Amino acid sequence: MISLNWAGKPLRSKAQMTALKSGTTTQTATVVKAAQIKGVYPTRIKVSDQQIAALNLTHRPISSGIT
Fold this sequence. Notes:
Elements: H1 2-6, H2 14-22, H3 49-53
């Protein structure tokens, strides 16, 4: 679980966060891979209501699985 891997560890770099994500395991043995993609990406892009409506989004309840 990511939250358990990160517990008490300061997140000082993107590389460190990527490494912690990559070290994540699950109860069902799902393999987690993470990679840092370096680049400059535009911000504050305006997205129209029509563009949002065209996305195939499905709401799913959040379950942390932590007991």
